[in-house]
Automatic annotation (TrEMBL):
Name this polypeptide is given: Major facilitator superfamily (MFS) profile domain-containing protein
Upper classification of the organism: Bacteria, Pseudomonadati, Pseudomonadota, Gammaproteobacteria, Lysobacterales
Protein topology in the membrane: Multi-pass membrane protein
Any coiled-coil regions, as ranges: none
GO terms for MF: hexuronate transmembrane transporter activity
Subcellular location: Membrane
A Pfam family annotated for this UniProt entry: MFS_1
SUPFAM superfamilies: MFS general substrate transporter (SSF103473)
Chief location category: membrane
A GO CC term attached to the entry: membrane
Length: 425
């Protein structure tokens, strides 16, 4: 008698991951348009470094406020509706930049964009928790998180051409229409695994193969009692501002340091963010590979995070690089390290908390990262206005990740899941 083979599990969950990848890509195209155009809008409109810092801070402030609400809203209404609300807001906000004529107008548009974009990562990570077994989550997060780098690559490819051909307003309108198109597809197509008729029984069994998780909704006051929450908060607070710096100041750094024009910015930015894209997928793959080889989750996750943290350290030399492409290589390695780090950090909530609490924990951590980003954006604006030097910023970037890893290990030395008392909810 021939052995009975296991039924095929299917790959529908990876289609869901592709949708998350598309949303994250569009999210970062929308937010990156201003960064690409900043050196030239600054000349055209006349804002100084401090005022540009305030514009960036407006986005960060709204992002922080949005994250206070986004996780709880998504946990309450589900990923389908919660994601739709978020992307509807940021689509309109992206297009509203075309109406801005000064610092106040751009600050208001950025504030609205931050409110909407705050919903992307809580919704995407909760979707991963719904659609993937624990052992595949880091890879799934790494794949969709790579959209942040794809978006950062696409933006310098498209934005300068659109702006040079049709005007800078058209660049904001075009990216807003991309997110509106995604929204229509999402509402028509997305359902949870149990409600998706195209999902096979074998794949559904794989998705639900982990031990049952308690079906409780934890209020924030209870989440904040757990060291696991504070570990995630600390990781985001310490390292998120570095990524914001990459997004909003790299074009200005390259323009100021090497005199690049709008069209010349494209190739170095593309190389930097392609490297970041590779880092995102590699960081998630590395942790999953170590787990597959028998490493405990704690050692695999932190080992991958340590490798990524060390990759960022050489950026301390970027401000003194004599050649453009030496600086690009150092910065690209750092962005790769950050994104590999993020692929693992963003998996921590689903490692440490039951599924109903994941989006709320991500929202709390994202809020911490956005508040820290606000502080750094204002600081960088005043620093550059006063000194014109990027050296202190690169020194801060090079040390942030090892510091964050130390804090995470101190708070959760074994990555033990939070002990949830369902009867207390």
């Amino acid at each position: 008698m021939e052995p009975i083979s296991a039924p095929p599990t299917g790959r529908y969950r990876w289609r869901v991951c592709a949708m998350l990848l598309a949303a994250t890509t569009i999210n970062y195209i929308d937010r990156q348009v201003l960064g690409v155009l900043a050196p030239f809008l600054q000349q055209q409109i006349g804002w100084n470094e401090v005022e540009y810092g305030y514009i960036v801070t407006a986005f960060q402030a709204a992002y922080a406020i949005g994250l206070l609400c986004a996780g709880a809203v998504i946990d309450r209404f589900g990923t389908r509706i919660g994601y739709a609300i978020a992307i509807g807001i940021w689509s309109l906000a992206a297009m509203s930049h075309a109406l801005a004529a000064g610092v106040v107008g751009f600050a208001l548009a950025r504030f609205a964009l931050g409110l909407g974009e705050a919903g992307n990562f809580p919704a995407a990570i909760k979707t991963v928790a719904e659609w993937f077994p624990r052992r595949e989550r880091a890879l799934a997060v790494g794949i969709f998180n790579s959209g942040s780098n794809i978006g950062a690559v696409v933006a310098p490819l498209l934005v300068p051409v659109v702006a040079a051909t049709l005007g800078w307003q058209a660049a904001f309108l075009f990216t807003g229409l991309l997110s509106a198109t995604w929204l229509v597809v999402w509402l028509k197509w997305y359902r949870t695994p149990e409600q998706q008729p195209r999902l096979g029984a074998g794949e559904l069994a794989l998705i639900r193969s982990d031990p049952p998780e308690p079906s409780v909704r934890l209020p924030w006051r209870r989440l904040l009692r757990h060291r696991q929450t504070w570990a995630f908060v600390a990781a985001k607070f310490i390292t998120d501002p570095i990524w914001w710096f990459f997004l909003f100041w790299l074009p200005k750094f390259l323009h100021a340091q090497y005199g690049l024009s709008l069209l010349e910015l494209g190739p170095p930015l593309i190389v930097i963010f392609v490297m970041a894209d590779i880092g995102s997928i590699t960081g998630g793959w590395l942790a999953g590979r170590l787990i597959h080889r028998g490493w405990p989750v704690n050692a695999a996750r932190k080992g991958a995070m340590a490798v990524c943290a060390l990759a960022v350290v050489p950026i301390v030399f970027a401000a003194h690089a004599d050649h453009l492409w030496v600086a690009v290589a150092l910065i690209g390695l750092a962005t790769a390290g950050h994104q590999g780090w993020s692929a693992n950090v963003l998996t921590l909530p689903s490692d440490l908390f039951p599924r109903p609490a994941v989006a709320s924990v991500v929202g709390i951590g994202g809020f911490a990262g956005a508040v820290s980003g606000m502080m750094i954006a204002t600081f960088i604006g005043f620093l550059l206005q006063a000194t014109g030097s990027y050296v202190p910023v690169f020194l801060m970037a090079g040390s942030a990740y090892l510091l964050a890893l130390g804090v995470v290990h101190l708070l959760v030395p074994r990555l033990a899941p939070a002990q949830v008392d369902a009867s207390a909810s």
